Amino acid sequence: TLDRSSAASDVYKRQILLFSSILAKSQNYDNKWVAGISGSSVIFQDNSLGSRYNTQAPKININRYLFYGFSLDGAVTLSGIGDIDGLLSNSFSYNSLDGYLRYDFNLSDNNLVPFIAIGASFIGAPSSRPNSNPTSTFNTSIGGTLWVTNHWGINAQMTYKVSPQEFRSMVNHKQLTGGLVYSFRPRILVRRLWNR
């Protein structure tokens, strides 16, 4: 049994090493990886969770370009900020794990890159509702990135999250996100009219 668990551990370590080297090579030789950090605000469809509004920071995401304008995006939203007197007060901590398939209309090399996306989320149970459970949602999203330097861009996104009726712990809601994104490889920016 010890030999079998040791062999399984070695296989697991090799898989992690192989996966890490593939990621490192992709980040070094392709302009395909982008990471971002932002803040977000959620607007619920009603007051049944104690409030219609909830503010979160940080939201951290990583994006991997695939082909023909398609990319995969993964994100985690955390309630890392507490209440601020007179400014914001959350009735519960909103934490979410998200995954998206994004399409940018084949405009990936432009300075302004609009996109649409579909995906899903796993949202933590709201403490403001008794006996609540974590909830899965189906998401649709629109947004865009304005690249201001070869590495840095400003990103904005609006997501609508639909909670199936069998999950009573969460309600349908919008999530508005704004923040910064970083391209691991320098991008070639299209010259703007005023710079020509």
Summarize the structure.
By secondary structure, this protein is mainly beta. 14% of the residues lie in helices and 46% in strands.
Describe this entry's structure for a reader.
- The chain has 196 residues and is mainly β.
- Helix content is 14%, strand content 46%.
- Strands 1-2-3-4-5-6-7-8 form an 8-stranded antiparallel β-barrel.
- The longest helix has 28 residues.
- The protein starts with a helix and ends in a 13-residue tail after the last strand.
- About 8% of the residues have low confidence.
Search tags:
mainly beta, 14% helix, eight-stranded antiparallel β-barrel, 196 residues, 1 helix, globular
Strand-helix topology:
Blueprint: H1 2-29, E1 33-44, E2 53-67, E3 70-77, E4 96-103, E5 112-123, E6 135-147, E7 152-162, E8 173-183
Antiparallel strand pairs: 1-2, 1-8, 2-3, 3-4, 4-5, 5-6, 6-7, 7-8
Number of strands: 8
C-alpha termini separation: 70 Å
Q: Estimate the global geometry from the Cα principal axes.
A: globular
Strand order of the largest sheet: 1-2-3-4-5-6-7-8
Which residues sit in consecutive blocks of at least 5 with pLDDT less than 50? 15-29
From the alpha carbons, calculate the radius of gyration and give it in angstroms.
20 Å
Structural class: mainly beta
Strand content: over 45%
Helix content: 10-25%
Largest sheet: 8 strands, antiparallel, barrel
Per DSSP, the total helix count is: 1
In N-to-C order, the SSE pattern is HEEEEEEEE
